[in-house]
C-alpha cells in the first residue's frame, strides 16, 4: 500500500532558483537561505527519500492564463517540461510524472466530490522547480523522485478557502492509501510566506504571523483551516495567500504532526522564506466528509 510518510512546505522564491543555477548559493546574500535546507537535503538523500511527491504548487500565469483558471488541477502526464518564464527555461531536468498514481488520485478525488481539472500536457514554472532544487540540490542530472503536480489557483481571485484546501489534503490521503503499490509518498505545500510583490505595501514581511503559522502546522490544532482570505491579505500581503497550499499538505498528514526541521529566514528577495518538514504522528487517514440530516458537512478522522 502507498503511504504518505512526510509533508514538506517551502517558499518557492525564483531568485533562489537563479542563485542555484548560477553557482551563487554561497554568496553572502543567499547562503543563509540555502543553509536552512542543509538538514533536509541530507535527510531526503537518505532515509527521507520519496518514491513520489504530490507537489502542491501554483502556476504564475506561465501555463494557465486568464482564459482558463482551474481552482485545483492534477498532472497525469509521463513528464512535464520546465517552462520559459522570460529568460529561457531553467537549466534543470524535466519533471518525471507518475501517471498511474496520478490517475488513481484524480479518480479518487473526483469520486470524493472534488472537481479536479486533469492536465496531460503542461510546462511547470518556478512554483514547482524551485522547491525541487531547494530539497535535492543544484547538481541533479535528473530529479531523484517522480512527481504528481497539483496546481492550485492562488493568482486570480477567488482562491480556494483554507478549509477547502485542508479537506483536499485529507482526500489526497484517502486516495494515496487506497493505491496498492508500496510507495513512499510525500505531500509538499509550496509558496508563501508573507510577501507582496507590488503596490504601496511591496516588500511587506510579517515575522510574527509567519511564525504563528509555522507553529500551528505542528501538533493537532486545526486553527489554520479557519483563517479567512482577508487575514492573509492584511497580515501577509497580496501573495501571502499562497500559504493556503500548505494546508493541503497539512490536511494530508491527518490528526497530528511532529516537526523534524524548521527554517525561517529574511531577507531574500521580497519574500519571507519559510520551510518545514513534518511527519504524521499516528498516520490516521481522515474519513470522507459525511452529510448530516441538517445539511452540515462534518469530517471525521476516527
Ligand atoms: C517572489 C516570490 C514568489 O512566490 C513568486 O511567485 C515570485 C517572486 C519573490 O520573492 O521575488
Ligand atoms: Fe509565488
From TrEMBL:
Source organism per entry reads Tsuneonella dongtanensis
Query: What are the EC numbers?
Result: 1.13.11.8
Tell me where in this chain the Extradiol ring-cleavage dioxygenase class III enzyme subunit B domain is found.
8-273
GO MF annotation terms: ferrous iron binding; protocatechuate 4,5-dioxygenase activity
One Pfam family for this entry, by name? LigB
- Name the UniProt record assigns to this protein: Protocatechuate 4,5-dioxygenase beta chain
Superkingdom, taxonomy of origin: Bacteria
Q: Which SUPFAM superfamilies does the record associate with it?
A: LigB-like
This protein's record includes keyword Zinc: no
The alphabetized UniProt keywords are:
Dioxygenase, Oxidoreductase
What NCBIfam families would the database entry show?
Answer: PRK13364.1, PRK13365.1, PRK13366.1
Amino acid at each position: 500500500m502507498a503511504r504518505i510518510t512526510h509533508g514538506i512546505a517551502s517558499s518557492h522564491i525564483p531568485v533562489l532558483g537563479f542563485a542555484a543555477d548560477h553557482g551563487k548559493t554561497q554568496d553572502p546574500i543567499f547562503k543563509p537561505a540555502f543553509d536552512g535546507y542543509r538538514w533536509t537535503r541530507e535527510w531526503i538523500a537518505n532515509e527521507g527519500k520519496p518514491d513520489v511527491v504530490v507537489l502542491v504548487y501554483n502556476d504564475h500565469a506561465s501555463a494557465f492564463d486568464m482564459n482558463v483558471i482551474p481552482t485545483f488541477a492534477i498532472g497525469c502526464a509521463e513528464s512535464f517540461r520546465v517552462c520559459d518564464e522570460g529568460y529561457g527555461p531553467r537549466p534543470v531536468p524535466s519533471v518525471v510524472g507518475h501517471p498511474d498514481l496520478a490517475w488513481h488520485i484524480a479518480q479518487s478525488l473526483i469520486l470524493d466530490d472534488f472537481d479536479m481539472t486533469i492536465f496531460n500536457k503542461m510546462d511547470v514554472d518556478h512554483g514547482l522547480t524551485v522547491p525541487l532544487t531547494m530539497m535535492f540540490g543544484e547538481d541533479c542530472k535528473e530529479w531523484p523522485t517522480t512527481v504528481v503536480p497539483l496546481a492550485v489557483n492562488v493568482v486570480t481571485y477567488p482562491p480556494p478557502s483554507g478549509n477547502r484546501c485542508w479537506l483536499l489534503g485529507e482526500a489526497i490521503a484517502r486516495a494515496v492509501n487506497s493505491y496498492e503499490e508500496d510507495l513512499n509518498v510525500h505531500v509538499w505545500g509550496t509558496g508563501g510566506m508573507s510577501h507582496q510583490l507590488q503596490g504601496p505595501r511591496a516588500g511587506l514581511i510579517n515575522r510574527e504571523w509567519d511564525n504563528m503559522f509555522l507553529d500551528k502546522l505542528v501538533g493537532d490544532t486545526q486553527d489554520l483551516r479557519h483563517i479567512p482570505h482577508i487575514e492573509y491579505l492584511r497580515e501577509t500581503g497580496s501573495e501571502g495567500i499562497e500559504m493556503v497550499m500548505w494546508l493541503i499538505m497539512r490536511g494530508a498528514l491527518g490528526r497530528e504532526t511532529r516537526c523534524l526541521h524548521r527554517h525561517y529566514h529574511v531577507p531574500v528577495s521580497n519574500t519571507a522564506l519559510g520551510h518545514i518538514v513534518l511527519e504524521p504522528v499516528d498516520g490516521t487517514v481522515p474519513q470522507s466528509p459525511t452529510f448530516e440530516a441538517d445539511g452540515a458537512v462534518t469530517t471525521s478522522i476516527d
